[in-house]
Specification:
globular, Aspartate Aminotransferase, domain 1, Aspartate Aminotransferase, domain 2, 7-stranded mixed beta sheet, alpha/beta, 2 domains, about 350 residues, binds 4'-deoxy-4'-aminopyridoxal-5'-phosphate, about 15% strand
């Protein structure tokens, strides 16, 4: 064995328990496969790929389609293999050794993780008691640490909370560096920071095809930001990082926007049904604007509830060991049948 970089030695990887169960409600994917027409179109158009040639390095057609959907310029769009790679590219360009990255916890663990891997110093601010941004804490973190990059996840993962627009505006007004708003779940909420993006602001908004677009298996994500920033990312990312099949399937998915929007509407109504069902039990439920719900059983330990759900072949995310999330579990919204099974099981567990 040879030693890894000193600063990586203490780093723990990203963990998410995988158990073989019938009902998987633990990783916030879409419970639905893409529409049948999507698979047919991919199958017929795949034969036109020039397999012996590198793909379009700039992924221009895909960028253009995404840009059209959001009413922006293709030069404002950067695409990569999942929004995680988008975030990694941003951090390779704007974080790294000698630079500081700020997060407000609890939030998506990969922001701090990727930042550390680039060699940056991570400052973890704390969210308020209700888990929204606390203006005094934001002020402290920005003034004391002057971070080069600040992350904000809205709706936040794992809490599901949507950050009010005014808080994002305040953050933008006072941040000394780049602000990254991670909108992996924005389609399930009622507002987006996309309309705040413009050439004069150091703001990027990241999105994914993994949830709304039912394409977690394909690994595709993007950001919308100022053109000068996207140009820097294009320098950092590996050449031909986005393969031809993915570019093609991403473009085909966008043709099915109406189907995807219908699914989002169904998942939102199922989310509200799950939240109401949990609220009728001895459980504290956090308001969610995402495709999952964070909750805390009040009378039984979270870890015990998690295990008893697994015993009934239902897997949710166990957040009970995470800082400030004692006893909390996170359930991804599934199909109506899966959600029925979950609600019946948890009522059963808490009654016993
Ligand atoms: N951001 C947030 C907040 C997430 O929850 C996730 C997925 N769990 C991602 C980014 C990464 O998504 P992907 O890489 O699949 O696009």
């Amino acid at each position: 064995m040879i030693p890894v970089r000193d600063d990586l030695r203490a780093l723990d990887g990203y963990h998410s328990a995988q158990v073989d169960v019938e009902v998987r409600l633990n990783t916030n994917e879409s419970p639905f496969p893409p529409p049948a027409g999507f698979a047919d179109a991919v199958a017929s158009e795949i034969s036109r790929i020039d397999w012996n040639r590198y793909p379009d390095r700039a992924a221009l057609a895909l960028r253009t389609d995404i840009a059209d959907m959001h009413g922006v310029d293709p030069a404002q769009v950067f695409v990569a293999n999942g929004s995680n790679e988008v975030l990694q590219t941003v951090l390779l360009a704007y974080a790294g050794p000698g630079r500081t990255v700020a997060t407000f916890e609890p939030t998506y663990q990969m922001h701090a993780q990727i930042a550390r891997v680039t060699g940056a110093t991570v400052v973890e601010g704390e969210r308020g008691l209700d888990f929204t941004l606390d203006p005094a804490e934001v002020d402290r973190v920005l003034t004391v640490h002057r971070p080069h990059v600040v992350f904000l996840t809205s709706p936040n993962n794992p809490t599901g909370l949507v950050e009010p627009r005014e808080r994002v505006e305040q953050l933008l007004a006072s941040a000394p560096g780049l602000v990254v708003v991670d909108e992996a779940y924005a389609q399930f909420s009622d507002w987006s920071a996309l309309d705040m993006v413009d050439e004069s602001r150091p703001l990027v908004v990241t999105r994914t095809f993994s949830k709304t677009w039912s394409m977690a298996g394909a690994r595709l994500g993007y950001l919308v930001g100022p053109t000068w920033l996207v140009a820097e990312l294009d320098k950092v990312v590996l050449p031909y990082h986005l393969d031809a099949v993915k570019q093609l399937s991403g473009r085909i998915a966008l043709r099915f926007a109406d189907d995807m929007n219908e699914r989002v509407a169904l998942l939102v109504s199922e989310r509200d049904r799950i939240s109401a069902g949990l609220r009728a039990l001895p459980i504290d439920v956090f308001d969610s604007g995402a495709n999952f719900v964070l909750f805390r059983p009040t009378d039984v330990a979270g870890g015990t509830v998690w295990q008893q759900l697994v015993d009934r072949s239902i897997l949710v995310r166990d957040c009970s060991g995470w800082p400030r999330l004692e006893n909390c579990l996170r359930v991804t919204i599934g199909t109506p049948d899966e959600n029925d099974r979950f609600l019946t099981a948890i009522a059963d567990i808490l009654k016993a």
